[in-house]
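Holo prediction — LCNOYBR7.
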Amino acid sequence: MTVVLGAIADDFTGATDLANTLVKEGMRVVQVIGVPDADTDVGDAQAVVVALKSRTAPVDQAVSQSLQALDWLRGQGAEQILFKYCSTFDSTEHGNIGPVTDALRAALDTDFALVCPAFPANGRTIYQGHLFVGDQLLSDSPMKNHPLTPMRDANLLRLMDAQSTGRAGLIGLGDVMAGPEAILARIEALRQAGIHHGVADAVRDEDLRAIGRAAARHVLVTGGSGIAMGLPDNLRAQGRLDPAAPTVTPGVAGRAVVLAGSCSEATRGQIAAVRDLWPVRKLDVDRIAAGQDVVGEMLDWACAQPDGAPILIYGSADPEEVRRTQAKYGVTRAGEMVEDALGRIATGLHAAGFARMVVAGGETSGAVVSALGVTALRIGPEIATGVPWTEAVGGTPLALALKSGNFGGPAFFDDAFAVLDQV
Ligand SMILES: Nc1ncnc2c1ncn2[C@@H]1O[C@H](COP(=O)(O)OP(=O)(O)OP(=O)(O)O)[C@@H](O)[C@H]1O
Ligand SMILES: O=C(O)[C@@H](O)C(=O)CO
C-alpha cells in the first residue's frame, strides 16, 4: 500500500489545483472523482485527492460524503488527511467548511486542525486572521458578488466560529515567520486554551512551508492548495516517499472547446479576450427555463464550426445579470440550469470528437466531469498557477483543464491550448 497522504477536496477545480501542487512537490498523485468503490485501484499513487462537489451541497450531504471519502482514504493507508477548500474560503453561513472540519476532527479523534486557505502565488494572503485577495480584504473583493457563496466577511476566526462547533484561535505571522518550533508552541498554547481551529497567518510560500513542517504529525490539516506545499517534504524526511517519475502529459488529439460557467471577474475577462477571435456562443438562461432545446442548438452550432480553431460556450454573466436571473428562478435553480446545460453540451461534444476541453468554474467543472462519466484524472503540465491539464483515466481519450473561477490571466484560454500543442 503506497498511499501516504489522502485529500478531500470540496470541488473539482480545487482538487486539480491541489493535485497539481502535490505533483510539483514530487509526489505521484491520482485524482478520483467522487468517493470511489472499495475495489478502485489507484496504482502506485502516493497521494490520492478525492474530488467532491460538496462546497454548496446541503450540510448533511457534504459531511456524509466527506466522511465516506475519509473512510476510503484510510482504507488505502492514508495516515494524514488534508481537507482542501477554496483559497477564498467559499462557503455559506452554515458551511460547509466548518461542519466538515468538525466531522473530520471527530472521526479522526483529534482536538485540533489548522485552518489556512492562503495561496500567495495567486494573491491570497492571511494577516491577523483576515483573508486578502490581492490588496483587498476578501469581503471587498469581487468574491462579495459570487453567485453561490458571496463572501461578506474576511475574518477567518469569525467565519470558523460561526460555521463550526469548535473555537478558533490565531497563529499570528510573528510565530509563523519564527518557524516550525514557534508555530508548534503556539498550537500547544491554543490547545491548552481549548481552541480547536488554528487560523494560521501566511503571506509567503516560506510561511506555508513552515506551517506545513509544523503539521508533520497532524492527522488532519485544512486549507487551500498552498498548505500542501510543505507536506511532501515531511513524508520524505520520514523516509515514506520514494522518488516520483515525471508527470504524465496528456497527448490527446481532437477538437478544442472552452465551457465556462464561472461568473468571476477573471473568467469574464478571459471570455472577453477571445470573444471577437473565436466562434463563441452564450447560453440563454430564459430559453433553457422555457424548456427550449438550447443544448441541441449549441451542439448543432458547435459541430458546424470549422475544425481547427477552439470554440467557446458560456453561461457566465456579470453580477447584475446574475442577480436578475437568480431573482427570477432562485439561486439554486439558476445555477443548476447552466450547469446541467453545460454538462449535456460537454457529453454531446465529446461524442462528436471534441477531446480537449477547458472548463471554467468549480461547480461547473463538477457538473461537466460528472456528466462525462469521468472517474479519475491523471495530472499533466501546468497552464497557469493552480491549473494543470489532466487526462481522463480510461474511456475515450479526453484532456481536461478544470480552471478555478478566479485563476489564470486574461490569455488563459489561448495559453491552455498552446500548452497542449507543445506536448
Ligand atoms: N448567467 C448565469 N446566471 C446565474 N447563474 C449562473 C450564470 N452563469 C453561470 N451561473 C452559475 O454560477 C455558478 C458559478 O460557480 P462555479 O463554481 O462554476 O464558478 P466559480 O465559483 O467562479 O469557480 P470556483 O468555484 O472554481 O472559484 C454555477 O453554478 C453556474 O451555473
Ligand atoms: O483554492 C482555490 O482558489 C481553488 O483551488 C478553488 O478551490 C476554486 O474552486
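READOUT: The chain has a mean pLDDT of 94.
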